[in-house]
Amino acid sequence: MEIWIYSYQETWPSSFQKIKEELASDLARARVSYLSIDHIGSTAVPQLISKNVIDILIVIPSANFKHVILQQFKGALMFGEKQGGYYCLGDGGVQGRWSFKLHPGDAGLERVERHVYVAAEGSVPQRNYLAVRDTLREEPVLREEYGAVKLEASGGEFDNVMQYATKKNDIIRKILRKAGWSEEEIDVKESQAVKDWPRRLEI
User: Fold this and answer.
1) Cα 170–chain centre separation
2) pTM (2 decimals)?
3) Which of 148, 115, 134 is nearest to 46 (CA)?
4) Apex CA 129: angle with CA 184 and CA 9, to 5°?
5) How confident is the chain (203 residues) per 10-residue block, as mean pLDDT?
6) Distance separating alpha carbons of residues 187 and 150, to the nearest angstrom
7) Phi then psi dihedrals of residue 61, to 5 deg
8) What is the rounded distance in angstroms from the CA atom of residue 192 to the CA atom of residue 84?
9) How far apart (Å, rounded) are the C-alpha atoms in residues 126 and 60?
10) 3-state helix, strand, coil in the chain (%, to 5)
């Protein structure tokens, strides 16, 4: 696979807002409870280059991070009236989250590519997503450095996106240190990433 990086698009925040509203509608219809729907990843950071993919985090209470709730999310995201068509990738290569991707739309139907992750409040994945996003929003020099690393890392072919993500480990560690994380916390975060996760769908 190839990784394509784009300059910041002013449409990304409004795209997220529309997706958020539709997700909220489908989750409510399916009676799936959650705490928040957050815009994460590089498209959530103004002026940062990024893949043209909207990353979304749905936060749930820690007590709800269990198989029966996962099945509820699968039903809501696979068959939702407004945002249906997702498939589940299990943890998608990062322990402590559930990962969903959107099936390609019908020919001629334009749907912004998006990834939806579900993680428990206070979990390592949730804390990591918000810490990286918020730090890059507040630190322009670090944001530029991160963008340069992303651009360099995107060169070449990859078997899966985790190989690309691993190339950013050093700069992510630097960002998390700036966010106040200890080296031990960062080590735990890195240990939860599966370096060669299977590409088959869980569904």
Assistant:
1) 19
2) 0.91
3) 134
4) 140
5) 87 96 96 97 96 96 96 95 90 94 61 90 98 98 96 75 79 97 96 66 50
6) 21
7) -60, 145
8) 29
9) 10
10) 45, 15, 40
